[in-house]
Design a protein that fits this description.
- The chain contains 5 helices and 8 strands.
- The protein is α/β, with parallel strands linked by helices.
- Strands 1-8-7-4-5-6 form a 6-stranded mixed sheet. Strands 2-3 form a two-stranded antiparallel sheet.
């Protein structure tokens, strides 16, 4: 019986850990980077849309593991004012391209070549993800791997789209 209660408690705590956390910051940091194709992207240009900003690296196993779920979320919200910006931390373009051949995504992969953006966003743990509301203010943060395609996570983001 004790083992059952312990397993139930562990299950409940892991389910709670899957919730997006309200953002603890005060001012949304600027974000202005070029993507892997050389096209510039500024967070300010996406005003009016919900933006998922994900800091990641190919050497980060949880980052690699969650990337397909971010793509599924993007696909599920296609046609809605929702954008994903994946910010790679200081890796060579050749390594990023090799990863994208194996795990194709249809959202911009931005290059943070000097990790300046990661520092500004306080992305000290990878993956680090922030959800920016249509008003340009960060609403949620999540550090670590998450299944972004889960209905309850998608619903939190959909609420921001309303």
């Amino acid at each position: 019986m004790r083992l059952f209660i312990l397993l139930l408690a562990l299950g409940a705590s892991s389910a709670a850990a899957q919730d997006l956390k309200p953002w603890a910051g005060v001012v949304t940091p600027a974000l202005s980077l070029s993507d892997i194709e050389g096209k510039p992207h500024k967070l300010a240009d996406y005003r009016g849309k919900v933006v998922l900003v994900n800091f990641w690296a190919t050497w980060c196993v949880p980052c690699r593991d969650e990337m397909p779920s971010i793509e599924r979320l993007r696909a599920a919200l296609e046609g809605r004012p929702f954008v994903v910006l994946a910010v790679n931390l200081a890796e060579p373009e050749s390594r990023i391209r090799k990863f994208l051949e194996v795990v194709p995504v249809r959202f911009p992969v931005l290059l943070d070549t000097d990790s300046r953006a990661a520092r500004a966003w306080q992305a000290r743990v990878l993956p680090a993800t922030f959800i920016v509301g249509p008003d340009g203010v960060v609403r949620y943060q999540y550090f670590g791997e998450l299944d972004w395609a889960k209905p309850e996570i998608r619903e939190q983001i959909v609420k921001l789209l309303r």
